[in-house]
Amino acid sequence: NYEEWLYNTNKFEHLPFRLMCADFAPGRCLDYIETIDNTKIKSISEAEYHFFKGNSERCIEIAENYISDSDDTIAFCSGLLYAVANLSICNYRVVRITFDNMQKYILTKEFAERDAKKESIAFFTSSIIDILLHCAKADLTKLKEAMQYLPDGIRLFSTYIMALLSYYNGDYSRTIGIADTAISLCTHIHLVPVIYLHVIAAIGLINMKKIEEAKARFRIAVDLAAAEGFWAPIIQHHGILLGLPEVCMREAYSAEFRYVALGAHDFLKGWYHINHVGEEKSMVDELSTTEFVIAMLFHKGWSMKEISFYLEMSLRMVKQHISTVYLKLGITKREELKNYMLV
Questions:
Q1: What is the rounded distance in angstroms from the CA atom of residue 210 to the CA atom of residue 292?
Q2: String of b and e for 74-86 (b: at least 16 CB within 10 Å)?
Q3: What DSSP string describes 55-97?
Q4: Which of 92, 88, 32 has the alpha carbon at shortest distance from 234?
């Protein structure tokens, strides 16, 4: 019932992250943003729009106006967009300072005693920070409590966060199950969270070597992303997609693939540095996107022949890439890759 959904959604008009909440038709996102009356929410929605398109500089330019806003909800949402957009362009010192400030506030006694219903969006943003900084060690207890007070779209995105945590913990079946359940219960479009859910499902499948299923699921995510040019979900997960962008996008979406690969290289460097504090330069910075993909597959236990068949690349070329990776990282055996690869 669209009228009922609209009524329920309008109750959350005070919340930012409108693009996660909204049920706009693919390709009509800017039209939807124009209908937002609240000036701050509209501006943050514009920052959100540029973030999902991968236009990090424009997102930062808008979001930094609100990261110290007197309204905690505005400040939290803007701070998250500001930090992750800076991560996407390797400004990892800015990311660390922003996240540290947000975490200090979250850990105060005053914040801890707040009502989960009133502060649900803050717990949502803090859970994303925990995932980015702590991976498998993140505690989503507060998020699970707060989800009941969030609008449908943000609840969907919250299930993506839970699926991502399951991936970090190595439970790929659970990753796929969470994503599939959330998608099956989605009664409206909610383009942004659904893209993320299909991406994380594809990640679970490819880690189980269900290659054809993973390709099919990833292609759904790509087709949805193409409707608005929302390539950020693929850029942000490129490393753990284990070559799916190369296999599924290189020919069908050649220009978009180049954009994703370029953005992924910068995002990877930013993510690595935010999780390896104190390293001014990492050997991972020296790897090309293709080299990193092959290194990730090799690190995950794929044989050279499996990589060759999957990436449609000659065995000789795969061996050459692995030799180059070893040389750049200064290692001599597969086991040492774990010090440089993603989870």
A1: 21
A2: bbbbbbbbbbbbb
A3: -HHHHHHHHTTTTT-SSHHHHHHHHHHHHHHHHHTT-HHHHHH
A4: 88
DSSP-assigned states of every residue in 264-298: HHHHHHHHHHHTSTT-SS-GGGGS-HHHHHHHHHH
Residue carrying the six token digits 């008009």: 13
- Count Cβ atoms below 10 Å from residue 312 Cβ, excluding itself: 9
CA–CA distance, 116 with 84 (Å, rounded to integer): 24
Whether the CB-CB separation of 198 and 218 falls below 8 Å is answered with: yes
81-93 residue pLDDT tens: 999 999 888 888 8
- Is the pTM higher than 0.90? The answer reads yes
- Measured CA to CA, the distance from residue 16 to residue 60 in angstroms comes to 16
Determine the angle formed by the axes of helices 172-184 and 191-207, rounding to 10 degrees: 150
